[in-house]
Each structure stands twice: as C-alpha cells, then as structure tokens.
UniProtKB/TrEMBL annotation:
SMART domains: CA
Keyword Calcium attached: yes
Protein name (Swiss-Prot/TrEMBL): Cadherin domain-containing protein
Gene Ontology molecular function: beta-catenin binding; cadherin binding; calcium ion binding
Cross-referenced InterPro entries: Cadherin, Cadherin-like_dom, Cadherin-like_sf
Major localization listed first in the record, in broad terms: membrane
Segments forming a coiled coil: none
Organism (species): Psylliodes chrysocephalus
GO biological process: adherens junction organization; calcium-dependent cell-cell adhesion via plasma membrane cell adhesion molecules; cell migration; cell morphogenesis; cell-cell adhesion mediated by cadherin; cell-cell junction assembly; homophilic cell adhesion via plasma membrane adhesion molecules
Keyword terms of this UniProt record: Calcium, Membrane, Repeat, Signal, Transmembrane, Transmembrane helix
CDD domains to which the protein is assigned, alphabetical: Cadherin_repeat
Record's bilayer topology term: Single-pass membrane protein
Length: 460
C-alpha cells in the first residue's frame, strides 16, 4: 500500500502512524519577532504574519526551535508550496519574501523534523496588507456645458484597481486647484476582496464652453497603506446649443445712386463656436419690399451675398430703405440674430419737370399723359386784366437740387407777346401751381391786328 502512494501522502501516513503510535516526540517553537504571531494548536503551531514583499531585506526570522540542538533539523513541506530558509542558532529564517498577492505564497504547511523521530507540524498564514500601489485609469471624458452631473448620469468613470483590494478605503483627490470643479466619488461599500471598480467623476459647478473648453488636471489616489498614484486627466467641455449666431461682417449703412446695381457681403458665425453649424441668411419683415415688389434686393441664403438693384427712388419718393436680414443656424432655425440694413438712395437727375395738369376755375382738370408740348387756347376780351382761368401743376419727381426748376414765358416766333403776360411763381421745387396773368393790359388792343392772336410758350 505504501508503494503506490505519492510522497505527500506517504508523509501523511507516516505522521498519523507516528501520532497514533505515540512513539514520536515533538519540538517546540517560540516567537522571536513581534511581527510573527505563533499559536499552539491541536496538531502543532499556527504562525501568522503579514506579507512582507515590500519591506523584505535578506531574511526574516520566523521562529526559534526549542528543546533541540538543531543539528538535524529539516523542514518537510506538505505541498509544492515551499520557501527557502535556513536555520541559524535554532532560529528559522525565511530567505524570501511572502507576497499575499502571489496566491501560492499565502499559506504553507510543513513538518519540522528533528532527526528521524521528532516532528512538529507548523502552518504559516500570510495575511494581506494594503501594500501594493493602486492604479487609476483616466477616461477620455466629454461633459456638456451647463449640465450638472451626478454619479447616475455622468458618462465619466475612472477605473480604480488595487491588487490588495480594500478599495473602499481609497482617497481620490483632484489636483491643480480644480477640486472645487470636479470630484471623483469613491464607493465606500465594497467588500475588501474587490480589486477593480469604476468611480464616477462629477462636476461641482456648471461648465461653460466659452470660458473653458477643456480642463487638464491630475488625480491622486491614496490607498489605506498610503500607497499612491497620480495620473493626468483631460475633460473636454461640449458646447451645447444656447447662443444665437453672431455677425462678424456687416455693412449696415450704404449710400448709392438709385437704379444702380450694388453688391455687399455679410457674414455671421454660429454663436456656439464649439458646434459651429452652418449659417443661413434671409431677408425678413421688409414692408417696403412687399409694397414695392419691383425692388430687387436679394441675399444668398448660404453666402450672405446681397445684390440690390432696380430701386427707383423717384417712383416712391423714398430716400432710405430699411432692410431686415437674419442669420440663422441652418438646421435649428429658432436660433437667429437679426440685423437692420439702411440704404440711402441718392437721386439721379433722370426726370425733367413736366406739366401734369391744368385745373380750371370750375374745378375741372385737363390732365396730360406725356411730356409732349401742350397747346392751350383761351379767349378773352381786349383790355382783360385778370388771370387766365386755369392754373398749371408742374412737377419734377426727382429730389434735392434735381427737383428745382424755373418757369418762364418765352416768345413763340418773331414777335414777343410775353411782354403783356406774367407767370407766377417763376420757380418750383418738386411741384407747384403756376398761374398766368395779364401784366400789361394796354397791349391787349383788338384794334391792333398784331395783338389779336397772341402766342407764347411756357418754358420749364
Ligand atoms: Ca503584496
Ligand atoms: Ca494597495
Ligand atoms: Ca497586499
Ligand atoms: Ca431721379
């Protein structure tokens, strides 16, 4: 039966045989180091000590063997878990460190054999301490401006790892004086044997893309063993839609001649520069344009190029045209910025004064539809000394000095009949009513054949 067992089972059989046979003796051990706790158990000793892989120098005293001269001591490990050791002056030293994070170094079971018949069982338990450095992985985070994030809605999580566990005892600090802006929330309710978790980053104040579009800071994590790590973090701020477009190029006043073709360029940009959407232009709310649809004022929806033409200043007698344009975010047309454009239209002298109508004393009008010479025949008695029975409305639809005109009587043919007549007034602006009267009735002598038919022109 013994022949078919492996060496470990062989040892066990031997132990039990020895225990039950009662023929063997045992050695005792005692502590020589405060950091090593030794307790007597039913079957030997239980030795407990903290892992020491970070503070091990070259050897560690585990216990002292008593009641033996230690000249024939060997250790017999019960499994493949063993450690290197030596015995000096009956003190057993481990010549290697014990690291709890290495699973095979967490416990040992062995026999101390003194000679051939004396054995003592010793179990060694290595306890975990927070001796390894934690690791923090920074996410690449984008947070919306004007939004408060809490642990439930933040998209930003730091991965915290520590091979020791004990994650609930971590302190995570935001540096670079941004601890009033950001905070990493730590979870205080994790079992000690949790080795990795996600810790949410939240903001403590609202972020403003226009003020700061990204934050760069470091985050330090300290574990319960005072092991720490610092990593750099960058939080980008996402611009969200909350600003109307902004005009960057505008010509809000221009002066140019009527009936000319004018071109202007205006430009606006997205007020939310982080979104930077395309801007669309439009002419809006232009009452004059609706009234006078023969105006031609257009703006290119995409480029902001304005073309103005066909403005007939005289036709509507207006000198200033107010055009309202807007710049809107093309795909979010609630976001618009209006702008007023004022165009001062210069008159050109493209109209002559004309006689529009004659109005007779009885109230009837004789209207003229063209600029051709008009012939008016009137008859009256000799020695007539009053005014003719009509007045002439003369109009020049230009404006300014282009609308000033003079009126006079000029001879028709060789003989000057105008010496007997007068027209008043002799000048007008834009329009006026003119009346012709006899200024010297002594000319109006029927017996003088020259004065029976009088001809003259009204010249404007
Ligand atoms: Ca360790
Ligand atoms: Ca640790
Ligand atoms: Ca540890
Ligand atoms: Ca004109």
């Amino acid at each position: 039966m013994i022949l078919i067992m492996d060496i470990h089972k062989l040892n066990i059989i031997i132990i039990w045989m020895l225990i039950f046979s009662g023929v063997h003796c045992s050695v005792n051990i005692e502590t020589v180091d405060d950091e090593v706790d030794i307790k007597k158990t039913d079957h030997g000793y239980a030795l407990t000590m903290e892992e020491n892989n970070h503070k091990f120098s070259n050897k560690k005293a585990l216990f002292k063997i008593t009641e033996s001269d230690c000249t024939h001591i060997t250790l017999n490990f019960f499994s493949s878990n063993s450690f290197t050791y030596n015995i000096d002056d009956c003190i057993l030293y481990s010549l290697q460190a014990f690291d709890y994070e290495v699973p095979t170094q967490r416990s040992y079971s062995m026999l101390i054999i003194d000679g051939t018949t004396t054995e003592t069982q010793v179990k060694i338990y290595i306890t975990n301490i927070d001796d390894e450095v934690p690791i923090l992985h920074c996410p690449n985070c984008i947070l919306d401006e004007n939004t408060m994030y809490d642990k439930d809605n933040t998209p930003c999580f730091y991965t915290l790892e520590d091979p020791d566990g004990f994650l609930s005892f971590m302190t995570i600090t935001v540096n670079n004086e941004l601890d009033k802006t950001f905070e990493v929330i730590t979870n205080q309710d994790l079992p000690n044997e949790t080795y990795s978790t996600e810790e949410p980053l939240i903001n403590l104040i609202t972020l403003n893309y226009k003020t700061t579009d990204f934050y760069s800071f470091s985050v330090t994590v300290i574990d319960s063993g005072n092991n720490n790590a610092t990593v750099n973090a960058i939080i980008n701020v996402n611009d969200i839609r909350n600003t109307n477009p902004r005009w960057t190029k505008i010509i809000n006043f221009a002066e140019f001649p009527e009936k000319s073709v004018q071109e202007f360029d205006v430009k606006a940009i997205d007020g939310d520069t982080g979104i930077n959407s395309s801007i669309c232009y439009e002419i809006t709310g232009q009452d004059d344009l609706k009234q006078h649809s023969d105006y031609d004022i257009k703006i290119d929806k995409n480029t902001g190029h304005i073309i103005v033409k066909n403005i007939d200043r005289d036709k509507y007698d207006i000198n200033v045209i107010e055009v309202n344009i807007t710049a809107c975010v093309c795909d979010e047309t609630d976001w618009c910025t209006p702008q007023k454009l004022n165009y001062y239209i210069e008159d050109i002298d493209d109209h002559s004064p004309i006689i529009v109508k004659n109005t007779y004393l009885d109230g009837t009008d004789q209207e003229f539809n063209d600029n051709e010479p008009k012939i008016v025949n009137i008859e009256f008695l000799e020695n007539f000394s009053g005014s003719f029975n009509f007045s002439s409305l003369i109009q020049d639809i230009d404006t300014g000095e282009n609308a000033q005109f003079e009126v006079q009587l000029v001879p028709e043919g060789d003989f000057d009949y105008t010496v007997a007549y007068i027209i008043v007034p002799t000048a007008g602006y834009k329009f006026g009513n003119f009346k012709i009267s006899v200024s010297d009735k002594t000319y109006l002598d029927y017996e003088n054949p020259t004065w029976i038919n009088n001809y003259f022109h009204v010249s404007i």
